[in-house]
Amino acid sequence: MEGEPANAAALKQAGERLRRWLLEAALPLWLDAGQDAASGRYFEALDIHTGEPVRRPTRARVPPRQVYSFLAGAELGGRDDWRRAAEVGLDRYLTDFTSEAGLMVAACDLDGTVVDAGIDLYDQAFALFALAEAATAFPERKTEFSSRSGAMLSRLRSDLGHPLAGFEEAHPRRLPLRSNPHMHLFEAALAWEELEPAGPWAALSDEIAGLALTCFIDRDGGYLREFFDGDFRPMADASGRIVEPGHQFEWAWLLTRWGVSRGNGKALSAARRLFEIGGQYGIDRRRGVAVMQLADDFSVRDPVARLWGQTEWIKAALILARISAAQEREYYLASAVQAVAALERFFDEDRPGLWRDKLTVEDRFIDEPAPASSLYHIVCAVLELCR
């Protein structure tokens, strides 16, 4: 590493360190304890003290995130049996969670019984995302997964398509409309677009990017809001003022990917501004972590820090560093070093492979189970570090 800038060298070491932690501690633990060997079903969380599964209903976002995590982990050099376990988990998820309409219900019990039959756009996005990863991992099933994903998208458009762009929350209409499900649908569309350039996914990516640039992101301030009325205008109540630093980073990462692929300078400028807002106002310097919520005047609304926000900070800093040069690149690399340190604070030292989810303003972690849903965020950050 002689002659390599300090921040770049530190990030290279961090990538190697986190890759080892993921492959040697986290994924083995979450396979052994986080997936039922008999049924293939995934547990919602593991006890932070014992590592044992918490037996409660599983939300629809958890199985596809776990499938993605193990398939991505296998690609990073993990065990061969992770692919097979992920395929079993995917098939069980599709069996348990698929509604008669072909969309995914909100939650199932540990025996596969549906306990919440609601249809949430957020959950559909993760189904599509996992199916894209599975189509890559299992090429012999690509046609099957592509057909299912295309049918899901068609159903979403017919049932929940918004007259302006994007999607409704429910039919009949339920407000507020949210930017967050669109963000994850954007991620899924970008994944499928790589596999099927001539399919419907590029148009979906463009549609959501356009919605973000014209509606979700404030035209004057450059920050991204969370909650909207039926015309994608900010909600008139306090919810319309919520700005989440983690989502500023996550949208910055996605818009940079899209902007590079389309040669769209407006998207890249928007991504840089989103990162600037998240980094300048959303980081608690005392604790060294990204907080949960700001108001639209950039005052802190919720000072709790969650693990996932630190991973999005890493991803955004790294991708923006790659398209930058000189001092600007060093700025992003230095920020990524800080973000890695923030993330590693959440890893449980007593039981490697587990993590804490919430850090209070008093700088204490809340004593609660480790949520399975965080693994996907960690894996995505490690992948970005290892690129």
From TrEMBL:
<protein>
    <submittedName>
        <fullName>AGE family epimerase/isomerase</fullName>
    </submittedName>
</protein>
<dbReference type="InterPro" id="IPR012341">
    <property type="entry name" value="6hp_glycosidase-like_sf"/>
</dbReference>
<dbReference type="Pfam" id="PF07221">
    <property type="entry name" value="GlcNAc_2-epim"/>
</dbReference>
<dbReference type="GO" id="GO:0005975">
    <property type="term" value="P:carbohydrate metabolic process"/>
</dbReference>
<dbReference type="InterPro" id="IPR008928">
    <property type="entry name" value="6-hairpin_glycosidase_sf"/>
</dbReference>
<dbReference type="GO" id="GO:0016853">
    <property type="term" value="F:isomerase activity"/>
</dbReference>
<keyword id="KW-0413">Isomerase</keyword>
<dbReference type="InterPro" id="IPR010819">
    <property type="entry name" value="AGE/CE"/>
</dbReference>
<comment type="similarity">
    <text>Belongs to the N-acylglucosamine 2-epimerase family.</text>
</comment>
